[in-house]
Design a protein that fits this description.
Shape of chain A: globular
CATH topology of the largest domain in chain A: Phosphoribosyl-aminoimidazole Synthetase, Chain A, domain 2
Structural class of chain B: alpha/beta
CATH class of the largest domain in chain B: Alpha Beta
Strand content of chain A: 15-25%
Protein name (chain A): Hydrogenase maturation carbamoyl dehydratase HypE
CATH architecture of the largest domain in chain B: 3-Layer(aba) Sandwich
Strand content of chain B: 15-25%
Largest interface: A-B, 55 and 88 residues
Keywords (chain B): Iron, Metal-binding
Largest sheet of chain A: 7 strands, mixed
Number of helices of chain B: 17
CATH superfamily of the largest domain in chain A: PurM-like C-terminal domain
Shape of chain B: globular
CATH superfamily of the largest domain in chain B: HypD, alpha/beta domain 2
Number of strands of chain A: 15
Order of helices and strands of chain B: HEHHEHHEHEHEHEHEHHEHEHEEHEHHH
Structural class of chain A: alpha+beta
Oligomer: heterodimer
Radius of gyration of chain A: 21 Å
Number of domains of chain B: 2
Family (chain A): Belongs to the HypE family.
Pfam families (chain B): HypD (PF01924)
CATH architecture of the largest domain in chain A: Alpha-Beta Complex
Order of helices and strands of chain A: EHEEEEHEHEEEHHEHEHEHEEE
Number of helices of chain A: 8
CATH class of the largest domain in chain A: Alpha Beta
Radius of gyration of chain B: 22 Å
InterPro entries (chain A): HypE, PurM-like_C_dom, PurM-like_C_sf, PurM-like_N, PurM-like_N_sf
Strand order of the largest sheet of chain B: 4-3-5-6-11-10
Distance between the termini of chain B: 53 Å
CATH topology of the largest domain in chain B: Rossmann fold
Helix content of chain B: 40-55%
Chain lengths: 358, 359
């Protein structure tokens, strides 16, 4: 026993969270700072190159002698349950990769899909998922042009895992990416935050109450094309998926070395999502979205972009939530003007999002 | 429904009143971690006049659960044939060697549940497994945790047990106010705890130490009004307990919940992590329910505890230590990878040291 038996209040100590050095833990997949650490400390150590090190969700590859670049992205999908209100793993697998390529500002053309199936998985469910993938691909105007299938022994995989890769093209003059945010830029989100994460949690019957929340999972390339036509000077496009709005904005702040300042009252969150978050002790700013985009662009084009977003079904609730500033300190950060007029830091998700007890 | 309690104008009105009546410095403690969280989340701290200092109390059951119990939880969760269930935020709390997340990564069956009843349901569905629930919390979670044991006993579910780490607020208040270095002059009593227990128990404490208290809720307006009521009493030299959260709290509390607690639990001494032993500050299962006590059921003996490295931001905030005296400073803890508030905030002492005074 190292704890002393006299209460002490003048020397409160807080034990540090243990670093995970030996094994992968769930928090490594949260999309927050532990995921980032895993990428930096393992993958970048081995793979580092000029394109990867830009830290975007896509890679834009130069083609010699062409004024076009090829854009590629890849994304693995595991979700439980595989069917949830508003979507399924198939729609998620197509939309996720379409969106990652679209965030370059380019046109998405082709997808490939790799399936890991668990022995015993229902073929009717597989067919339903394939149909859903084709529906989402048609909606996005892309073709699934190659694929692979592996079957794992019963118990060695959880039903179905789908990895997709996407290929598209972007004009060589387009330089959209997280590093491009500039002081004075306006920050827009295309709609309400947290719908997907809460819909999936609700489908797991883990909420202890029922909700009507639907996942927002959708291919956003049409919405983004419309925004780019109206506002060609867009600096950053990014979908706030795992880790939510807060984590994604922190990544952009770090990439661009800029501060981002938010207005809490402006951030759209549906009442049902807010209520579910409050019951569980979640912050909607950290809950995943699968059909929303953050648009950062010069203020003079903000209204044109908003008008274009509003005209599209996936962007009708688009709204300005903040702006980009020259960093006030050494470390770029995201801060928020709270609804009662205070200010607070909005940090990156540090581990897995855990329901709070108090 | 809660919108009124987040209304900017109402909050700003109460803040203006606090500014008007404050004539000198006051140190007020909010004991509850949920209130600390709300204060920081809404940036309320910065909106108060400089003279009002909020001292953040030890009211987070996750943080104060003793290292010994965390280690016992890890030992039980690591066993074959055990499904270990817990509120989510206990999983990252460090034990001497590892945490519950690591147990899960190593193949242990550790599951996040939202209530003890859910754990009983898991026990029902898995009769060949031992299901253990980590019963932590203050008076707020005690009734629901107690019901789980009653339900298991009534239904003859023998494979359910609870690792009990319940703690109570009033003994902690005694310990804080009786400490020779105490600086707390007024208290915000935690609204949720009072909703269960009422606030009669606080009266003698307020009187004994001459410290006024306001029963306070968790929304920004609730917190601001609780602070306003406390400052008002301090300025007038009154020692009372007022209910600033009357929409949820009555003087006598929830009698039914109190009865369930009394049926299942009895007071015991309890270790608080980072603080030490506070006499009669916890609850353990009564003898009628010993069969459901995981500590007895699993006989986890020979627990050798060793506190992990510590973040000393609490001491830094009080000016007791300098940032570079922290073992994590500049190595584990940097502005890119902050471990404490003082490194996160650009005005924070650790961040300033890191920027200007790093060796």
């Amino acid at each position: 026993m190292t704890e002393q038996n006299t209460p002490k209040f003048d020397q409160l100590l807080c034990p540090l969270p243990l670093p995970y050095k030996d094994k992968v833990v769930m928090s490594h997949g949260s999309g927050g700072s532990m995921t980032k650490a895993l990428i930096t400390e393992i993958f970048q150590q081995h793979f580092s190159n000029a394109i990867l090190d830009q830290e975007n969700d896509f890679a834009a590859l130069p083609l010699e002698g062409k004024d076009m670049r090829v854009v590629v992205s890849t994304d693995g999908h595991i979700v439980s349950p595989i069917f949830f209100p508003g979507g399924d793993i198939g729609r998620l697998a197509v939309s996720g990769t379409v969106n990652d390529v679209a965030m370059s500002g380019g046109q998405v053309k082709y997808l490939t899909a790799s399936f890991i199936l668990e022995e015993g998985f229902s073929l009717a469910d597989l067919e339903r998922i394939a149909q859903s993938m084709q529906d989402a691909a048609a909606e996005a105007g892309v073709s699934i042009v190659a694929g692979d299938t592996k079957v794992a022994e019963k118990g060695k995989a959880d039903g179905i895992f789908i990895s997709t890769s996407g290929v598209g093209f972007v004009d060589a003059s387009v330089q959209i990416g997280g590093a491009q945010a500039k002081p004075g830029d306006t920050v827009i989100v295309s709609g309400s935050m947290g719908d997907h994460g809460i819909a999936v949690l609700a489908a797991r019957n883990q909420l202890g109450f029922t909700t009507t929340i639907q996942s927002d999972v959708a291919p956003l390339n049409g919405l983004i094309r419309a925004a780019l036509q109206a506002a060609p000077s867009i600096h950053v496009l990014r979908d706030p998926t795992r880790g939510g709005l807060a984590t994604t904005l922190n990544e952009i702040a770090l990439q661009s070395q800029m501060d981002i300042h938010l207005e809490e009252t402006a951030i759209p969150v549906k009442r049902e999502v807010r209520a579910a978050c409050e019951m569980l002790g979640f912050d909607p700013l950290y809950v995943a979205n699968e059909g929303k985009v953050i648009v950062i662009l010069p203020e003079r084009q903000a209204q044109a972009a908003l008008d274009a977003l509003h005209a599209h079904p996936f962007g009708k609730d688009a709204v300005v939530i903040g702006h980009v500033e020259t960093p006030s300190g050494n470390t770029p950060r995201v801060s928020m003007h709270t609804l009662i007029g205070g200010t607070r830091i909005v940090d990156m998700l540090s581990g897995e999002m855990l329901p709070r007890i108090c | 429904m809660l919108d009124r309690f987040r209304d900017k104008d109402l909050v700003q009105g109460a803040l203006a009143e606090i500014r008007k009546i404050t004539t000198r410095p006051w140190a007020i403690m909010e004991i509850c971690g949920g209130q600390t969280h709300a204060i920081m989340q809404y940036g309320l701290n910065d909106l108060l006049p400089k003279q009002i200092e909020l001292i953040h109390g030890p009211g987070c059951p996750v943080c104060v659960t003793s290292l010994e119990l965390v280690d016992k939880a890890i030992a039980i969760a690591s066993r074959e044939n055990v499904i270990f269930t817990s509120y989510g935020d206990m999983l990252r709390v460090p034990g001497s060697q590892q945490d519950l997340f690591s147990v899960k990564a190593a193949g242990g069956d550790v599951r996040v549940v939202y209530s003890a009843i859910e754990a009983v349901r898991i026990a029902e569905k898995n009769p060949d497994k031992e299901v253990v629930f980590f019963g932590i919390g203050f008076e707020t979670t005690a009734p629901a945790n107690a019901i789980s044991v009653v339900k298991a006993k009534r239904q003859g579910i023998r494979n359910y047990s609870m690792l009990v780490s319940h703690v109570c607020v009033p003994p902690a208040m005694h310990a804080i106010l009786g400490s020779p270095n105490n600086r707390v002059q007024g208290f915000l009593a935690a609204g949720h705890v009072c909703a269960v227990m009422g606030y009669e128990d606080y009266k003698p404490i307020a009187q004994q130490y001459g410290v006024p208290m306001a029963v306070t809720g968790f929304e920004p307006l609730d917190l601001t009004l609780g602070i306003l009521d406390t400052v008002r009493m301090l300025e007038k030299g009154e020692v009372k307990i007022v209910n600033s959260y009357s929409r949820a709290v009555t003087r006598e509390g929830n009698r039914i919940a109190q009865q369930i607690i009394a049926d299942v639990f009895e007071p015991c001494d309890r270790q608080w992590r980072g603080i030490g032993l506070i006499p009669m500050s916890g609850w353990k299962l009564k003898s009628d329910y010993v069969d459901y006590d995981a500590e007895l059921k699993f006989q986890v003996q020979d627990i050798q505890t060793k506190e992990s490295e510590v973040c000393i931001s609490g001491q830094i905030l009080q000016g007791l230590k300098k940032p570079n005296q922290c073992p994590a400073f500049g190595t584990l803890c940097t502005p890119q990878n902050p471990l404490g508030a003082t490194m996160v905030s650009s005005e924070g002492a650790c961040s300033a040291y890191y920027r200007y005074a790093r060796d």
